[in-house]
C-alpha cells in the first residue's frame, strides 16, 4: 500500500490518541497497515502486545516491559517509567469502569495493548512528547462465550 | 462502495464492541462507511451524536435521548432505559479513569458518542440482544490546545 | 399460615426489593414464612444461602452457584449470568461502603445472601423480569465481638 | 398488640443493625410496631424520616437534622456529629453502589431513613453506644415507574 | 532542650493533626524532640513505627498492633479498635490517592507511621479524645530510585 | 537565621516531598524559615497560598493560578499544566480519603496549599524536574469547632 493509497483511505491524519486506540482495536485487520504507516511517517515510537490475564500486576508488568524492550521508553529513567506507569493505570481503570477493584474475579482470554509515543498535534506549541496506552479485549468469566469487550485508554506527558 | 469493496477492506466481521468503538472514533473518516455498512447488513440498530459539555447530566441525557429518538431503545420500557443507563454510566466511568468525580472541573470541546444494539456474535447460543455505548473526545481545561483524547465504552444486555 | 393470616400480617404486598432484603435479614425469624409465602404466591423464584468469608471471589462464586443450582438463572445463558453478576457486584459494593477494596482485611463470621427473580410491580407495563441480590451479615476483624452488621443490595433486569 | 404477641412474632431479639434496617424498610407495615416496641424496651433512641431528593447535601442535612431534633445525638457535641456524619456517608455510599458520584443524575420519589442509637448486644463487654443509619427508597429517572429499590446502611461508635 | 527553648521554637502549640503529621514526617530530624515534648506535655499518648511493605493487611495490622502494644488504644475494646481501624483506612486511602486498589503493584522500601491520641484543642467544649494516624514514606516500583514520597492522614473520635 | 543555624536545626536535607509537606503544615511557625532557606538554596521554585472553600473547581483553580502567577509553571505549556493538574487532583483525592465525591457537603475555613518544583534527590540520575502539591487544612461542617485537620499530597514529573 503506497503513500497515495493511504492518503485516499485516511483522508486526514489521526491524532495520537486515535492512532493508539486503532492500533489496539484493529489488530490483524487490513486497516492496521495504514495506521502503522501513519505512525512511522509521523515519527512515533509504537508497539503492540498481548497479555493473557486480567491480573493487575501482570498486565502492568507486561505493558511496561514491552515499552522498555521496544525502546518506547528508557527503562533507566524514573521520569519515563513514572509517566507510562500512570498512563497504564489510567487505561486499566478505564477498562474496569468503576469495578476494577474486582479484578480478582474477572478473567480474560486475551487483552491486546498498544503503546504510542510522540508529538500531540493539537497541543499548544507542539511542545514535547506524550505517551498513550490502549488496552482492548474481552472481560468476563473464565468460560468461553461468557465475556464481552472492553477498552481502556490512558495518556500522559513524557 | 459495494459489498465486495467492504469485504476487501474489512477482511473479517468486527464484533459489536469494535463496531461501536470504531463508529465513535472514525467519525468523518472514510472507513466509517464500511463500519456503517457492516452494521446495517448485520441487522444492528445504531446512531452517533455529539454533546458539547462534560456535564454528567447532559451527557447522560444526550445519549439517552439520541437512543430513544433513533429507535435504538424503546423509551417506554424501563428495562431498556435501565440497560442503556448502566451502559452509559460505564462508558462515562471509563472516560473518567478514576477521576470522573471531578467532572465539574473537566471541560470538553466535543464528545462524540455511538450507540449500537444487536446480537453479540461471540456469546453462547447467540441469544438475545446487547447494547454498546462508546464516548470519544477530548477532555481538558476550557482552553484550546489544553486538552487530550479520552475514550470510554460501556456494554449491557438488553 | 393461610392466605388470610398473611394478609393480616403484611397488610399490603411488598415490592421485589423489600422481599429480597427481608429474606436475607429475617433469616430464621418467624416473619420469614410470610415473606416466603408472598414470594411463592407472587410467582417469584428465590433462594437463600450462606458464605463464610468476605473473599470477593468466593462470595461472587457462592451466590452465582446458588442461583444456578436453584434454577434462579439459567447458567447456560450469558445474558442471565451477566445480569446476576452485575447485581452481585452492586450488592458487594453496597456492603463495602466505599472501602470494598480493602476486602482483604475484612473478615466475617457469616454472610447471608438472598436471590429473588420475578416481576417488578411498580415498573411501567409490568414488563419482563428482574433480579435482586441481598447480602447481610457482620463484617470486622477475625475476632468474636469485633465486628458489626452490614447490608448490600443489587438489582438488575434479566 | 401486646407484649406477648410481640414475643410470639419476633421470637428472638434483633441486633441493632437489623432493627435499623427493618425500621426503614417496614415503614407503615404492621410489623413495624413490634420493631418499635423492641427498640423502646431495649432502651434505644430512634427516629424515622423521609427526604424527597437524592441531592447529597439535602439527604445528609435531613438525616442530621432529624437526629438532632429527636435527641438521637447532641448537636452541640462535635464527637456525636462526627460519628453520625460518617454513618450517613457510609449509608449513602452503600445506596450508591459505586456510582454515588453520579448522584446528580439520580432522582428519587421518596427516600425513607431510620436512625437508631444504643447498645450493640454482640460487642465485647457491651461497652458504650453505637449509631446506625439506614436509607431505603427508590432510585431512578425522574419519571414514575422508571426507578427501582435501593438500600444503604452505615454504622459507627458514638 | 528545655521548655523555654521549645516555646521559642514552636511559638504556638500545634493542633493534634499537625503533631501526628510532623511526628511521621520529621522522623530522626532534631525538630522531632520538640514535637515529642509538646505531645508529652499535652498529655497525648503517641508512638511511631515502621512497616516495610505496602501490603494492605500488613500495614493495617502493623499500625493496629503498635497502637495496642504502646497502650494508645485498649485492644479489648471494640469501640477503640473500630475507631483506629477507620483512621488507618482513611490514612491508607489518602496515601493511595485514588489508586489504592492497585496496592498489589506498589512497593515501598519504608513506610513510617505515627499514632497520636488525645484532646482536640479546637473542638467545641474540648470534649473527649480523638485519634490521628499518619503514614509517610516512598511508594513506587520495587527498584531503588524508582519511587517517590506519599503521605496519608486519618482521624477519628475515640 | 544564617546557614549554620539552619544546619543545626535541619541536620540533614529534606527531600522535595517533605519540603512541600512542611511548607504547607508549618505555615507561620518559625521552622518555616529553615524550610524556605533550604528550598532557596536547593534551587527549588515554590509558593504557598490559601483558599477558603472546599469547592473542587475553586481549589484546583486557586492552586493552578498560584503556580502560574509565581512562575512555578509555564501557563502557556500544556505539558506543565497537565503535570500540575494531576498533582493537584492527587492531593485533593488524598485529602478526601475516599469520600472526596462528597465535596459538596464539606466546608472548610481555610485550606493552605504549597507548590514546590525542582530536583528529586533520590531519583536515578537526578534527571529532570518534579512538582509536588500539598494541601493542609480543616474540613468539616460550616460551623466553628465542627471540623478537623486533613492533608493531601500529590506528585508528578514535569
Characteristics of this structure?
homohexamer, 158 residues, alpha+beta, Hut operon positive regulatory protein HutP, 4-stranded antiparallel sheet, RNA binding (chains A, B, C, D, E, F), transcription regulation (chains A, B, C, D, E, F), Hut operon positive regulatory protein (chains A, B, C, D, E, F), Regulatory_HutP_sf (chains A, B, C, D, E, F)
Would you count the extended β strands of chain A for me? 4
Give the largest interface: A-B, 45 and 45 residues
For the sheet with most strands of chain A, the description reads: 4 strands, antiparallel
At CATH level 3, the topology of chain A is Hut operon positive regulatory protein HutP
Query: Helical residue percent of chain A?
Result: 25-40%
How would you name the CATH homologous superfamily of chain A?
Hut operon regulatory protein HutP
Tally the structural domains of chain A: 1
Query: What is the ordering of alpha helices and beta strands of chain A?
Result: HHHEHHEEE
What does this structure look like?
Chain A has a 4-stranded antiparallel sheet, sandwiched between helices. Helices cover 39% and strands 26% of the residues of chain A. In chain A, helix 2 packs antiparallel against helix 3 (32-41) and helix 4 (56-69) crosses helix 5 (78-96). The first copy, chain A, contains 5 helices and 4 strands, in the order αααβααβββ. With 158 residues, the first copy, chain A, is an alpha+beta fold. Chain A starts with a helix and ends with a strand. The first copy, chain A, has one domain (3-157): Hut operon regulatory protein HutP (Hut operon positive regulatory protein HutP, 3-Layer(aba) Sandwich). Chain A is globular and about 50 Å long. Chain A binds chain B through residues 8-12, 14-18, 21-22, 25, 28-31, 89-91, 93-95, 97-98, 120, 122-124, 130, 132, 136, 138, 144-155, and chain B through 8-12, 14-18, 21-22, 25, 28-31, 89-91, 93-95, 97-98, 120, 122-124, 130, 132, 136, 138, 144-155.
Amino acid at each position: 500500500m503506497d503513500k497515495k493509497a493511504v492518503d485516499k483511505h485516511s483522508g486526514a491524519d489521526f491524532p495520537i490518541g486515535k492512532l493508539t486506540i486503532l492500533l489496539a482495536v484493529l489488530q490483524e485487520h487490513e486497516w492496521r497497515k495504514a495506521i502503522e504507516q501513519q505512525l512511522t511517517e509521523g515519527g512515533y515510537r509504537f508497539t503492540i502486545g498481548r497479555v493473557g490475564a486480567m491480573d493487575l500486576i501482570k498486565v502492568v508488568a507486561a505493558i511496561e516491559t514491552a515499552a522498555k524492550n521496544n525502546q518506547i521508553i528508557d527503562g533507566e529513567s524514573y521520569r519515563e517509567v513514572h509517566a507510562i506507569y500512570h498512563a497504564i493505570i489510567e487505561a486499566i481503570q478505564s477498562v474496569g469502569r468503576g469495578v476494577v477493584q474486582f479484578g480478582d474475579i474477572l478473567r480474560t482470554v486475551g487483552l491486546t495493548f498498544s503503546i504510542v509515543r510522540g508529538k500531540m498535534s493539537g497541543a499548544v506549541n507542539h511542545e514535547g512528547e506524550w505517551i498513550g496506552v490502549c488496552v482492548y479485549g474481552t472481560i468476563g468469566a473464565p468460560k468461553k462465550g461468557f465475556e464481552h469487550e472492553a477498552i481502556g485508554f490512558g495518556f500522559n506527558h513524557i
